[in-house]
Each structure stands twice: as structure tokens, then as C-alpha cells.
């Protein structure tokens, strides 16, 4: 008879293997073929789609988001040089992600906006007769469909969670405020040309702001704690490792662990603890780990501070929805 511990371990191992095969394979193949320009889009798209499928409604979610996500990717790259246009595109993406809360899909779709945030702050430039935006959209579509296919073939081992729908009025406010915050942040980071650090600000806003503000305040604390711990991990690694390829490998290990702890439902600060060194190490090949780590910590706390201010302003509205619906949370 299978013990609960063995079953849980087996589930974790299966999820990690599926994530590597489904989420990372497109980027690995493109890197092996020498198409390095496409690697970042494929990596972000692979992870976003895998999480959408496994945290949403299985492979059906992949089919639903494939075309919209690819179109938004193309529009993101097209708009990247123009702060206002980029802000509008990311705001639309953020609203759609937030509106997914009506079906309990807001957590499943979280990485889609984060992916676009990193793409807009570092848009790839493809060589060839087609515009870079079109090529990137095609890469994203191929990646999304690949992940969906793998999740479909592995549906026996993929067990999406039960999703809890959010009150429609709360969903509208959540989606609208998220869209405004992400739009303003995108305008800010593009206009000031903040680069990858700007993507980190967008990521923090998307992660911290939640349909229920109580959850958001907890996420803010977890984000801060995990970022500080992750910062220390990255600094320690940087003391002993300076080789670019090794930093990439260690970054990948941290990324896999971060995704694994998210899928098994560990507290958010666990995820932040591993995702921080993952991104820092990925971006340290051409710089010092300490420099990159400090930039990312600064961006994270800017995102936390801005989001907390907005949530404090919205607190009376959240209390109103709590009284109106009789919810146990605000």
C-alpha cells in the first residue's frame, strides 16, 4: 500500500519532470539550435502556460489562452518603444488576468502578465523579413501549444486544483485596479528605460495585489522576507561562482525549486526565496551578482511600497465588499 509521504513525493517529482519537459523544452531546443533571441520568449511562455494549465483547468486552459497570449506578446514587443502604448497593452493583459478571478483563474494566469512585463522591458530583436513582434508572437504560440500538448498527454498525472470563483463586483474592482497599477508601472519603467529591473517592479505588483486585500498584505510580507533571504543566497553564490554557464545552471535549479514549491502549495515566501536568486543568477553572467542582486531588491521594494499604498487607499472599499457579501475575508 502506498504511503501518503511516498504519494506526495511522487506527485512532486512528476510535476517537476512535466515542468522541465513542457515548460523548459522549447527554450532548450531553441538555444541548442542557436536561436538565442527566441529563448527568453519561449522560457517565459513555457512557464506561464504550464502554470496556467496545472493551476487552472488542465490542458483546456492552454487552448483558451494560446491565441490571446500570443497576440498580446506580439503587441507587447510592437509597443515596447512607446511608453503609452506599452502601458495600454499591459493594462489590457492585467485586466484579463484579473477578470479570470470570476472563474477562480487569477492565480493560474498570474505568470502571463509577469512574462509580458519582462518582455516589454527587454524586447527581443529578431533578424529576418518579418517584424520582431510577429516572430515573437509565433514563437509564443508554438510554445503555448507545445505545453498544452504535453499536459494533454500527461493528463493522467495532472490534477488541477478546485477553483473558487470570486464575487463579480469584487472581480471588476480587482481587475480594474490591477490594470491601472500595471499600466502606470509599465509607462514608468518604459519611459525611464529601467530595463529588467522594471520587469521586477511589474512582477511584484502582480504578485502582491490580490482580490482580497488581506491576502495582499500577507503576500507583501512574504515577498519582502523571501526577497531578502533570496538576496543573501545569491550573494553567497556570487562569492564562490563567477562563471556564466554555471550561474545559468544554478539559476535554473533555483527556478525549478521555486516552481515546485508554488505547485505544492508552500507559503509564498518559499517561492520568493528561490525565484529571487534564480532571476539574479540568470542576469549576472555579464555583470557581478552583487550588483544585479541589489538592483532587483530595490525594484522589489519599490513594487511592494507602491502596491501597499494603493491597498491602504482601497481598504474601506474592501471592507464594504466584505459586509455586502458576508465574506470572512476583506
Automatic annotation (TrEMBL):
A Pfam cross-reference name: FUSC_2
Transmembrane region(s):
12-34, 41-59, 71-96, 108-127, 133-152, 172-190, 196-213, 220-240, 246-263, 268-285, 297-318
| Keyword NADP attached | no
GO cellular component, alphabetical, reads: plasma membrane
Q: Where in the cell is it found?
A: Cell membrane
Residue intervals of the Integral membrane bound transporter domain: 187-310
Which membrane topology term applies here? Multi-pass membrane protein
Q: Where does it primarily localize?
A: membrane
What UniProt keywords are attached to this protein's entry? Answer: Cell membrane, Membrane, Transmembrane, Transmembrane helix
User: This chain belongs to which protein, by name?
Assistant: Unannotated protein
Q: What phylogenetic lineage does the species belong to?
A: unclassified sequences, metagenomes, ecological metagenomes
Amino acid at each position: 500500500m502506498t504511503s501518503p509521504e511516498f504519494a506526495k513525493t511522487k506527485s512532486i517529482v512528476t510535476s517537476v519532470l512535466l515542468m522541465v519537459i513542457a515548460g523548459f523544452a522549447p527554450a532548450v531546443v531553441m538555444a541548442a539550435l542557436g536561436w538565442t533571441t527566441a529563448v527568453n520568449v519561449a522560457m517565459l511562455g513555457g512557464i506561464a502556460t504550464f502554470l496556467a494549465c496545472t493551476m487552472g483547468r488542465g490542458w483546456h486552459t492552454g487552448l483558451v489562452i494560446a491565441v490571446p497570449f500570443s497576440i498580446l506578446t506580439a503587441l507587447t514587443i510592437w509597443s515596447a518603444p512607446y511608453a503609452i502604448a506599452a502601458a495600454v497593452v499591459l493594462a489590457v493583459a492585467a485586466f484579463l488576468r484579473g477578470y479570470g478571478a470570476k472563474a477562480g483563474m487569477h492565480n493560474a494566469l498570474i505568470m502571463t502578465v509577469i512574462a509580458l512585463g519582462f518582455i516589454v522591458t527587454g524586447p527581443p530583436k529578431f533578424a529576418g523579413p518579418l517584424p520582431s513582434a510577429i516572430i515573437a508572437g509565433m514563437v509564443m504560440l508554438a510554445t503555448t501549444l507545445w505545453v498544452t500538448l504535453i499536459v494533454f498527454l500527461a493528463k493522467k498525472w495532472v490534477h488541477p486544483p478546485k477553483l473558487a470563483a470570486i464575487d463579480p463586483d469584487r472581480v471588476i474592482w480587482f481587475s480594474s485596479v490591477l490594470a491601472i497599477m500595471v499600466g502606470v508601472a509599465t509607462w514608468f519603467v518604459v519611459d525611464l528605460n529601467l530595463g529588467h529591473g522594471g520587469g521586477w517592479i511589474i512582477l511584484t505588483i502582480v504578485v502582491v495585489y490580490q482580490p482580497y486585500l488581506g491576502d495582499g498584505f500577507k503576500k507583501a510580507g512574504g515577498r519582502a522576507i523571501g526577497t531578502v533571504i533570496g538576496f543573501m543566497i545569491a550573494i553567497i553564490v556570487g562569492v564562490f561562482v563567477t562563471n556564466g554557464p554555471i550561474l545559468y545552471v544554478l539559476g535554473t535549479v533555483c527556478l525549478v525549486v521555486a516552481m515546485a514549491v508554488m505547485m505544492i502549495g508552500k507559503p509564498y515566501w518559499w517561492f520568493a526565496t528561490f525565484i529571487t536568486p534564480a532571476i539574479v543568477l540568470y542576469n549576472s553572467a555579464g555583470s557581478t551578482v552583487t550588483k544585479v542582486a541589489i538592483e532587483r531588491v530595490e525594484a522589489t521594494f519599490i513594487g511592494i511600497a507602491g502596491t501597499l499604498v494603493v491597498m491602504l487607499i482601497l481598504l474601506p472599499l474592501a471592507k464594504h465588499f466584505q459586509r455586502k457579501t458576508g465574506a470572512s475575508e476583506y
